[in-house]
Design brief:
Order of helices and strands: HHHHHHHHHHHHH
Strand content: under 5%
Number of helices: 13
Length: about 240
């Protein structure tokens, strides 16, 4: 399922991605409906379907999953948060709903899931707050920072990431030099604009490697070079998906 999601979100061309999302989600929904009630397959199909649902009608099925309308599917706290996150990033949930969910699951895991959902709202304001929290807030835990990044970096919201690319490259050198390895690498690796797959992103990556990052620490350069390799691979594959 992870590889299938990567094929759609990373390797499909821009003009084909939405149609592929709808097609794959439709196939997953059929598999979900025919899966044995209470089985691991049913659970995996439900999670993957929710991640790829594209149309308004498919989004409504995420709500049906959350409401327990699929016989045998155990809706535990982890699955509930996953489904709510998928609704949030599609503009199909509200702050009131995620606040109520936190009251239902008032645990550390619930609090982190709540933070992830806040960052996943499909607005520039949500992305700005998550980006600043991840890169500037020194008071938060590493888990909280990771939740903010995960909520920020939703593939269906890639259009909201465009204004952050230059800011990312402006801060990574100072981030690596001033923060712990764990903190700096989570920011550098997970905030790289991996869903903005274009020659423009590649050019900005090369500009950093040949400019501000030319004499940076080899470990930092390795992280950016690995991200560049993944970007170049995606560009090669997309060129075939015409």
């Amino acid at each position: 399922m992870t590889q299938l999601n990567t094929a759609v979100e990373i390797y499909a061309s821009d003009k084909n991605r939405d149609a592929l999302r709808e097609k794959v989600a439709g196939a997953l929904l059929s598999l979900l409906k025919s899966a044995k009630a209470g089985s691991d397959h049913q659970l995996q199909f439900a999670r993957s379907y929710a991640a790829l649902a594209h149309t308004k009608e498919q989004g409504a099925e995420i709500r049906n999953l959350l409401d327990g309308k699929f016989q045998g599917l155990k809706i535990d706290a982890d699955l509930r948060w996953h489904l709510i996150l998928c609704l949030v990033e599609r503009g199909m949930s509200s702050r009131a709903e995620i606040d109520a969910e936190l009251e239902r699951d008032n645990t550390l895991t619930g609090a982190l899931s709540h933070e992830r959902c806040i960052a996943a709202f499909p607005t520039l304001e949500a992305k700005e707050a998550a980006f600043k929290k991840a890169t500037e807030d020194e008071s938060i835990t590493n888990w909280s920072r990771l939740s903010a990044i995960q909520g920020y970096n939703r593939p269906i919201q890639r259009h909201l990431h465009e204004g952050f690319v230059d800011r990312y490259f402006d801060l990574i050198l100072e981030t690596y030099n001033s923060k712990s390895y764990e903190v700096s690498t989570s920011i550098i690796d997970l905030l790289y604009p991996s869903y903005l797959i274009s020659t423009q992103t590649l050019a900005k990556t090369d500009a950093w490697l040949n400019g501000p990052g030319k004499d940076s620490h080899p470990t930092l350069r390795r992280h950016i070079l690995e991200a560049k390799d993944s970007l170049e691979r995606a560009l090669r594959v997309r060129a075939i998906d015409k």
